# Entry
Amino acid sequence: MKSFNIRNKVRTGTVFLFILLLLTAGMGIFYVVKLKQLSNEILKDNYESLDYCYSMQMNLVSMTENYQKSKEEFHKSLILQEGNITEHGEIEATQNLRRKYESLIIAERLDSVRIIEMSQDISSIVRVNMEAIRIKSELTDQKAKEAVNVLSVIATFVFIVGLVFTINFPSVITMPIGKLKEAVNELSQKNYKYRIHINTGDEFTDLADTFNVLAEKLDMYEHSNLNQIMFQKSRAEAVINSLKDASIGIDKSGNILFANEQSLKLLNLKASEIVGKQSDEVARFNDLFRFICEDSHTSPFRIVTDGKENFFVIDKYSILKDDEELGFVLALKNITSFQEKDTAKTNFLATISHELKTPLGSADIGLKLLNNPKTGDLNDMQKEIVNDLQKENARLLKLVSELLDMSQAETGNINLTLTEVDADEVVTDVISSLKPQAVDKDITLTKSIPSNLKKIKADKEKAEWVLVNLVSNAIRYSPRGSEVILVAGISDGPTVSMSVIDNGPGIPPQYRDKIFKRFFKVPGRETEHNGTGLGLSISKEFMEAMGGKIEYFPSVPGGSEFRITFRAT
# Structure
């Protein structure tokens, strides 16, 4: 660090101005205090004597009316005046007044001559003090003029010195800054040959040397770096435009960094109308962009392009560096082909399910007839074969029924009849229908329902279907001799919840976000009557169609809790 750097220079200048300020303020305070002292002397010495004289004069006048009281008051004022003698000639007048007052007291009668003489003595005291006040006032005026003259000289001196200092001192800093500014302007115009020389012996000298080194290096790297940057920029633009999905990059401050050709085509905008703009600004005049920027889109949505309806989903990718989000990329994936295939699949499943349900129903009737003794007796092997066929046929019927329900859910054609339903009645019916299945595994079905439970707004058949699916799953995966509990209660807000709690193995954390997807089954959970993987998915669709929801909660220490929530009436 330099011995006399910029900070020390500024500090020295500030201290100098501060000293000038203190000098002016000090002289001003000195003369103000001095004038105040003179004024106080006048008030203390002379105005108090005038006050005492006024009191004595008034008491002399009132002695004819109230002699005793006026005499006492006069005597008090006289004593005070005797203790406040400060002027030449005041003591003689006060002593004369004392002698005449005592002779008046000794005579014990009012003597108009003495009273007049005493009044004259009081007037003498007043004249002496008035003259003193006049003299001191003149002295005060003289001192005030003297103070004004001295302060004017000092203020003029301080003003001239401060003005000279103010004009000249900033150039110590501004001159090097001006040179640096000129050098930076030259550098901005790519004049890398420009050099500056500042010999102030402070940080500006170091800054000038550093600038010269920088200019020298920029001169060396100019051509190679420029070519490389342009190449990288062109390559980045080519990569962005080659992306199949419409992509828009936005930084954390909402500034739009890029938009490839696919996104510009969808938005019907030019690059100059979106790139470099704030996302809020673009959203104000472009409805599709505003829709894309919203965070609530989880389902596919339609956009008509080239006269054809296309389906898109939005993916949002965060751009991170050292765990800090720098921005994000919005990618619009065209899933039209997948959507068309999914619709075809749904229609196919609905058609084939309808086609299969009739022959499977007929097969079920035929198997029941074979088991009927009226059609003839079967040996043990034949009975076992028929029973196995009935089980497989029942499984296929259940699968076909669930496929039909799933196709309804996917197309949004779920037939609902929403009415007021007694939650207790739903739980009781479900327990009654599943009691044989629970008895087979020695499982106890327990319900806990408050008596004041509100009725729910639901389709009774669909609500029972969902609850049957949950309870049958709980029975299937619970160990023998355990308990499955059905609990109903009032949730937050105008809703009623029903929970199915079991003591089964529970669902591992890594699979909990997948259990409501179609055909998903937890690995390693094969049972004698394994499900299709559609029950929870269909249950979710039914609950959402009825304005409710279904949730999973792990039980402690083990087991599962599935909670369904309905709107209360």
The chain has four domains: 6-168, 243-334, 339-411, 419-568. Residues 243-334 form a domain with the Beta-Lactamase fold (CATH 3.30.450.20). The chain has a mean pLDDT of 79. The radius of gyration is 53 Å.
